[in-house]
């Protein structure tokens, strides 16, 4: 018998709710080590909620969240971060009234030194180095996403959760951001990325999952899932 390693991150029959309203209604999803999984589907399907559950930001009401095969239901966001799960929320989660440098500094509370965080960020994105004393809110959308990525990568995560990386960005910038993600994956990172507009992420995805009404209704190669896109409801 072959000994398959457990997926890095796995949801099995995951349920979650906002108050009395159940939003995730039995989500099954696996992210294997070293892979990129694209979570696709129309607005309101439950993609962001899935990301929140994976990051420990919203508790499960049923089913299981597993990290490297271990059941971690109920873990706090800090614990998730310590275990290598790092997330960039929808809207990027940066502080617009702090400078680039101060935004990186806030991210050092997980234990990384500011100097190391800055060096890594400015090496990867020289544009951020040039703007280190500028308010984050004055950066372009693409630069803000670079800052969000730098903050997330400061903790040396094993898996990165990206929610709507492309939102509000020009197509060329989206392509650049996904090139950067592909490079991080080549360096060993695993990624779960939620996108309403699928075209940009499919080229770098190993697996695509289609989410509708709080469930993953189909999983396949990007090519297989792209066939569903022709129906148009995924946009992009
Ligand atoms: N904080 C919240 N409180 C109540 N309902 C929410 C909240 N966030 C999302 N929802 C609802 O949960 C459902 C799924 O939303 P979401 O996970 O954001 O989907 P997606 O990211 O795929 O657009 C939607 O019906 C949305 O209105
Ligand atoms: Mg969303």
UniProtKB/TrEMBL annotation:
Biological processes annotated in GO: L-amino acid transport
Alphabetical keyword list: Amino-acid transport, ATP-binding, Nucleotide-binding, Transport
Top-level lineage group: Bacteria
Keyword ATP-binding set for record: yes
InterPro entries named in the record: AAA+_ATPase, ABC_transporter-like_ATP-bd, ABC_transporter-like_CS, BCAA_Transport_ATP-bd_LivF, P-loop_NTPase
GO molecular function: ATP binding; ATP hydrolysis activity; branched-chain amino acid transmembrane transporter activity
PROSITE patterns: ABC_TRANSPORTER_1, ABC_TRANSPORTER_2
Domain ABC transporter: 9-234
Any one Pfam family match given in the protein's UniProt record, by short name: ABC_tran
Matches recorded under Gene3D superfamilies: P-loop containing nucleotide triphosphate hydrolases (3.40.50.300)
Assigned protein family: Belongs to the ABC transporter superfamily.
Name used for this protein in its record: ABC transporter ATP-binding protein
Biological classification of the source: Bacteria, Bacillati, Actinomycetota, Actinomycetes, Streptosporangiales
Gene label: livF
